[in-house]
Amino acid sequence: MRNFTDDLKTRKVILTGLILLAAGLFSFFYWGNQKQVWFCDEIYTYESANGFEQAWPASCLDEWMTGSDVEAFFAADWDRLSLNDITIRLYNDHVPLYFWLFRIVSVYFFHGSGSIWIGLSINLVYYVIILGVGYGLFLYLTKSPMLSGLVTFLTLVSNRLILEQITTLRMYAMLLLAEILLLLAALWIWRETDRAKIRPGVFVYLFVVSVFGMLTHYDFWIFYALTASVFCMWFLISAFREKRRFWATLKFKIVLIWLVNFVCSLLTTIFIFPYCRWNLNRGKGQLALKSIFVFSAEKIENIFWGFERLAASMFGEVFPVVIALLMIFGCLAGGGVILYKKKEAKKLTGFVLCVMVAQAYQLAVCFTLPDVREERYLWGSFTVMMLCLAWSVILIFRELILKMKVLRANKRFSCFVSAAFMIGILVGEIIVIDGGYGITYLFHPEKDVAILKEYDKIPWIVYGPTVGVYSYYDWLIPERICFLSQDNTDEDVLAFCKIEEQEEFVLYIYEDLLSGALELFNEASGERFTAQYLTKSTNLSVYLIEKE
Fold first, then answer.
1. 505: β partners
2. Quick check: helix, strand or coil at residue 547?
3. How far is it, in rounded angstroms, from Cα 426 to Cα 160?
4. How many CB atoms lie within 10 A of CB 372?
């Protein structure tokens, strides 16, 4: 029969978990409601999952439409899933799992809507699982519900790095979960090496996680390769050190089983999505593969950039990069030393291997960056580093409390110091978040959506090429909108003349095309128009056009 102490601890675990969940949900919905779509790949998410139902609105030149017509491009209007259509469209592109889920959620829960909550609701599910896994992990390491809840809150609720991943309408929250689950699988296998015989369940789990990750993002394939390489190399080294025959050791057998498991996972992925056999040799994948054997000063700069972004992801721009990196790796080294002195060999090995995987992935991605420096490819490894850093800080802080007589003797003072430390970290995180401006794809700093909504009743015109899709979500706002070419054709003139009264309208345009647009408006109407700058929408400027 369970004693009172066990019951009390169970209640604390559950209560802390519920409070943490409530805080996580509040944070998610608060920042989700601040979201303004502007990152081009977020628009391509809608295009890949629902856009095959109709042509891009901008391809319908000289036709007046409503914001609802534009939204129809984002929305699922058909009554069928059409997952195979998505699969075919993703040839030479991404693996399909996220887009399948996006389509399913669109059809069954957001039919006819282009809401940002299609993607955010998917992220919410993965975020809740990540929260649970993080809380359980720290609970296992610290044995303290309150401490586990506080650390999970600071790393997976109030932290900019996690907010970036869960508010982006892309598969990065899904990818983070897959990477964390893969590392847990590797750690589980490492623990199983103490047994005389390994249980098959761990490899079933590894298989499921592997297929899940391989269908989420091609970056997972890199993460998987490095995770398997680091852990299997350690298994082989450990097998060599055993006194029995190398070929007969359990660790060598585990490596063989893992290899078979990988082949099965890969074949299953290919069976589900055959195009992955070609995708890796196309586009960015092709550029990355070709760059493996290219050594240049730019590669070194990319690697330094990776460490710079690692520091910024933890501390923002508050500390100089060198100081921030010294703090990160100094704490990691300190945590490792403490585990070594305490003779926690298993925990120390798992800790070191996780850091090695995260760093190997960071270096591999930075070394093979295909075209531009994109921090989002590193978010997962940065998060793993952050979780390892958090555990190191816990170990160091606990050790300091044990060493300092004042803190050890006075429990209240010890709690006060701990609380002050936690509050200091929270304040630092709030500063880094910077009211949302520190969250990369939450909204565009130069775009004032409130101003745009003030003019939703008057006509909007988008003039010239609209290759950049950053502004597409803006175009859901107006009651009337029309796309004109930059050629000033007769059709453009006729479309412009359909504006009733032509007193004022909103214009989206590249700066260098403004004079040509005003020329069209002046000649078509016989009036003179002036342009008043309103705001910026990433690559397009927004003007209010009025009669003189």
1. 545
2. strand
3. 11
4. 6
Q: Residue holding tokens 């056999």? A: 277
Beta bridge partners of residue 461, listed in sequence order: 482, 507
Tens of pLDDT along 304-363?
Answer: 999 999 999 999 887 889 999 999 999 999 999 999 999 999 999 999 999 999 999 999
Chain-centre distance for alpha carbon 263: 28
Q: How confident is the model at residue 405 (pLDDT cuts 50, 70, 90)?
A: low
Express each pLDDT in 459-516 by its tens digit. Answer: 999 998 865 678 999 999 999 999 999 898 999 999 999 887 768 999 999 989 999 9
The answer for residues whose C-beta is within 8 angstroms of residue 404's C-beta and 6 or more apart is none
Q: What is the DSSP letter of 244?
A: S
Q: In what order do the strands lie in the sheet with 540-547?
A: 481-484, 460-463, 504-509, 540-547, 529-537
Give the predicted TM-score (pTM) of the model: 0.94
Own/partner pairs for 448-457, CB < 8 Å, 24+ apart?
448/534, 448/535, 449/36, 449/474, 451/534, 451/535, 452/477, 452/506, 452/534, 452/535, 452/542, 453/477, 455/506, 455/534, 455/544, 456/67
- Nearest C-alpha neighbor of 303 from the set 353, 365, 381, 374: 365
Residues 6+ apart with CB under 8 A from 7: none
Q: How far apart are CA 61 and CA 79, in angstroms?
A: 28
Q: What pLDDT is stored for residue 247 in this prediction?
A: 81
376/172 Cα distance (integer angstroms): 8
Angle at 387 between CA 375 and CA 330, to 5 degrees: 90
Q: Could you say which DSSP state residue 296 is in?
A: -
The rounded distance, in Å, linking the Cα atoms of 486 and 484 is 7
- Which residues 6+ apart lie within 8 Å of 422 measured at CB? 150, 154
Q: Does 371 have pLDDT greater than 70?
A: no
**What does the pLDDT average to over 416-420?**
81
Q: How far apart are CA 103 and CA 68, in angstroms?
A: 19
Residues 6+ apart with CB under 8 A from 125: none
pLDDT digits (tens, 9 = 90+) for 171-205: 999 999 999 999 999 999 998 887 777 888 999 99
Indicate if the pLDDT at residue 116 is higher than 60: yes
Which DSSP string do the residues of 34-51 spell out, in sequence order?
T-----HHHHHHHHHHTG
Torsion sign (Cα): 98, 257, 349, 188: positive
CB 398 within 8 A of CB 334: no
